[in-house]
Description:
Elements: H1 17-20, H2 37-47, H3 49-53, H4 72-90, H5 94-103, H6 112-124, H7 137-148, E1 150-152, E2 158-160, H8 165-172, H9 206-229, H10 235-249, H11 259-273, H12 284-302, H13 305-326, H14 329-333, H15 337-340, H16 345-358, H17 363-368, H18 383-395, H19 399-410
Antiparallel strand pairs: 1-2
Domain HD: 72-220
Organism: Treponema brennaborense (strain DSM 12168 / CIP 105900 / DD5/3)
Pfam family, one: HD
Amino acid sequence: MQGSFQSVRTDETNPLWETCVAREQALYGRNNDIRSEFERDYTRLLHCEAYRRLKHKTQVFFAPHNDHVCTRMEHVSHVASVASTVAKYLGLNDQLASAIALGHDIGHAPFGHYGEECLNSLLEQKPGKNAPKKFWHERNSLFFADYIETLQDTEGAARHLDLTYAVRDGIVCHCGEIDESGIRPRTNPLDLYTIRRAGSAQPFTWEGCVVKLADKIAYLGRDIEDAREYHILDMGAYRQLREIVASCFGFKTGKTVNTTVLINDLIVDLCSRSSPETGLCFSPENYRFITEIKRFNYENIYSHWRLREFQSYAANIIRTICSTLRRAYPAARTRKIPFALKQFPVLCRTFENWLVKYTQYDEERKHVLKYDGVRTVFDLANEESYDKCIIEYLSGMTDQFAICVYEEIISF
């Protein structure tokens, strides 16, 4: 119902407001700034380089030469649109929902979830109780927001994003399954780095819960459209789609499965069924429809043999770059990366810049580049920390840049 969540909206009247807008470090101020706290978060994410790179990161299909196939940035735009529409209608804070949605994938790996699986496997291969933890993009998006992404302040110095707690929380908690009983926010704030796996904690705000559902709504129909573009679906798959629609809504519905129809119908259903008492939820038939479409996508799209071949290609690229940089560890400790990677000028230049910014590799250069305010995130005296440094460097790459570096490595 319209406005039904006004009483639990994240604003100054909410008893949790101070927790939601808390920042680990205060932002530099501007006397003429007219933005709210969450609008500042939105624009800081919009201007950061990790967001810009999303336009060259795969959603499902690697398609650098097809302008109409969904990229990670388009997916984020869909999520932001759905989240803003739902939040505004229900009376929630649409500025908060939009900021969470914009930043929810900034730490996603190149090559979609296949790249994520590969980075995860590289971390799993490391022994030792202090080895880097498993890679999951929700946690990595929080890590990028907190430690990697920077913007220039009014003096031209690099400063971290320093987002509000509510936005950071929504980013790391945006994934996870939904069930028929709906979802509602958790009641206690917690250290977000104590969350050990994706989906294990609900968001702290209703707006974060909206983004979590918007993420589901946004990709289901869009992935089917891209599969049609590449003729991934055969006649049996189309027949299966019709059967899903018929079993959920009746044979006479005439319902079409595409992005715009699916998004509209699920938004309307979510808004009409949800309340602070029952939680954010779908009707039984639409919940079943979402479940069946997800199963259809996994069976007919994500598990398709052509995507599995692409996964092998992406994994080889990531592992080759990773092993090349691991061999350069002695050079990283002695500031001799240009000697160790002299055959690979693009990799050498960008990785050394990464080391300057986020490690103790060259403090003098760090000062010259006005990186004094950037935290030293990785310790070059510790090989496990250096491995984590490599993984984060790789996770920030676009598909095309990773391919460029890979070809540089294997070419003679």
